[in-house]
Fold each of these.
Amino acid sequence: MISKKKALQITDALTKEYPDSTPALKYSSSYELLVAVILSAQCTDERVNKVTEALFKRANTPEAMAKLSQEELEKYIFSCGLYRSKAEHIISASKDIVEKFGGEVPSGLEDLRSLAGVGRKTANVVYSVAFGGDAIAVDTHVFRVSQRLGFAEGKTPLDTEKRLMEALPKEKWSHMHHAIIFHGRRVCSARSPKCDACVVSSLCKYYNSRKRG
Ligand code: SF4
């Protein structure tokens, strides 16, 4: 397990490097954010923004979305990939919000996680971005970069989430989620990490073990 000192050094370096890291998704309400995050699985934020620009003109409330047919919604979101399951999840979550939460996206983490079609990662992102809660959502970037840094060597996203929560001060969770995503997209890519240009290379387990090897 990474030492608290090292975890804070990495946190400070990534915070300095990405001081304003926030999601690139466009939204104007917690509900729009929820839909955009569901659509963003295995899809770029740019693509999601194009899709939601048209979709939200047709439906941008849970009531309106719940009334769309699966087929109509699929036509809007087709280019995001995984469109069948994403359409199912968006409609299920919208119905749940209308039927169980009076049409308002709930602000509590457990309530968000209870919505049909909303996974742990999506709930954590909405909780932290829309409601200012402390949470770490583990997506593919957070999982990979955390492993390489030695931050969290869990075998599953849930394991990684728990290790990150142990290693980082609570008030840093949300920011570090975004900072690690930025780092994963810009520097620590899956196939060819730019270790020579990385601000945390001296603290990185993967980099140091390769140097030694
Ligand atoms: S040193 Fe390389 S592997 Fe480690 S975090 Fe930086 S880019 Fe990723």
Note: The mean pLDDT is 94.
Amino acid sequence: MIKLLRDFKPAFFSDENISTLTHLFKTQGKHVWQHDDVKEACLMLGNKKCAYCEVILNQKSTYLEVEHFKHKDDYPDEVIQWSNLLPSCRHCNGAKNNHNVVDEPIINPTVDIPSEHVYLKAYRIKGIDTLGKMTVETLNLNDIDHYVTERCKVGAFIEEQIEKAEDKLNNYRSETNPARKREIHKVIRAMLYQCQKNSLFAAVSSTTLHDSEEYSAIRSEMISLKIWTNQFEELHLSSLALRLPSSK
Ligand SMILES: [Zn+2]
């Protein structure tokens, strides 16, 4: 889970539209959130991923569901309030069901900072405090098939890229030429791209990357060899912001 920025408000959510649609929901039970503008806005908010578990939406079986953070049955006035909507996968939306986040709060990734409330242990997300623990339990975030196995694959990819980068850096050290520089750049780029906010399980990949002493050594050496680019540094820093605390 990563922090999401709700720093825009689509024109769809005008006071007039909200008032009309809220009335339609309350009087006729219409699914007023089932609108392309709402879905598009939710996808943008979540970097095209589930706000809770970070699976990429609208791929294979992971279709976007518009999630009401405060449940629409208990809080009908917020059924189409932009501040109450999140992008979610079917699994998280189903697990959360009609959970009341006012009575038993869970992390709202657009409000709370997830890394203050959860940490990573052996590809499982664990609560640091009551809020984190309630979140993990409510959303069933450590389902083996859905998440833990898939997070392992992402972690393994990062570990593999780090090993590859070490090899390529050795090659470059033994013979400094543009072709070898291109080779290591390709590996570093692929690795850093997998650790950005729009990547599958970015909190996991970023944590794996920044926990790695080998990665840290590679970066230091590339900086001193002047082959660590500004783009890499930007990607490095944006990924660092997604890191969760971890425990072995
Ligand atoms: Zn999810």
Note: Residues 134 and 177 are 53 Å apart (CA to CA).
